[in-house]
């Protein structure tokens, strides 16, 4: 029941917008908090443990989420993870066009996030 309230418009009720239609989740907000936090922790580990790094890494995951749905992000991350292995199964993930396309979408989204958050200034 709680999950239904959250998805169905608990926020709208809290804001006094009970009569307004509420969409379940748009593409920018479909990343779970745990996934966003995991991304920021990893990003900060790679870019320094500073306040500036926190701001840029947070910006980066928000930009990534605005470009790529969470399902596509998970698929691409899984492909990248599977490519690190050895053997026939790993080779399938390295040599299949569909998987290359998923990773390419992620790389493009990451490049856009870098431009927005690291080169454009936060």
Describe the overall structure.
By secondary structure, the chain is mostly helical. The chain folds into 2 domains: 27 residues, no CATH class; 89 residues, no CATH class. Helix content is 72%, strand content 0%. The protein is built from 7 helices and no strands. Helix 3 crosses helix 4 and helix 4 crosses helix 7. The radius of gyration is 18 Å and the shape is elongated. The termini are far apart. 16% of the residues are buried. The N terminus is likely disordered.
Short descriptors:
mainly alpha; disordered N terminus; 122 residues; signal
What is this structure, in a nutshell?
With 122 residues, this protein is an all-alpha fold. The protein has 2 domains: 1-27, no CATH class; 31-119, no CATH class.
Topology of helices and strands:
Blueprint: H1 2-8, H2 10-14, H3 33-47, H4 51-67, H5 70-83, H6 88-94, H7 97-119
Give the amount of beta strand, in percent: under 5%
Low-confidence parts, pLDDT < 50 over ≥5 residues? 1-25
The helix/strand series, from N terminus to C terminus, equals HHHHHHH
Classification by helices and strands:
mainly alpha
Q: What can be said about the biggest beta sheet?
A: none
Mind telling me the C-alpha Rg? Answer: 18 Å
The number of distinct structural domains comes to 2
Based on DSSP secondary structure assignment, what is the total number of beta strands? 0
| Average pLDDT reading | 77
Helical element count? 7
What gross morphology would you assign?
elongated
Ends apart, CA distance between termini = 39 Å
Range of helix content: over 70%
Task: State the oligomer.
Answer: single chain
Keywords: Signal
Signal peptide: 1-24
Protein name: Lysozyme inhibitor LprI N-terminal domain-containing protein
Organism: Methylobacterium bullatum
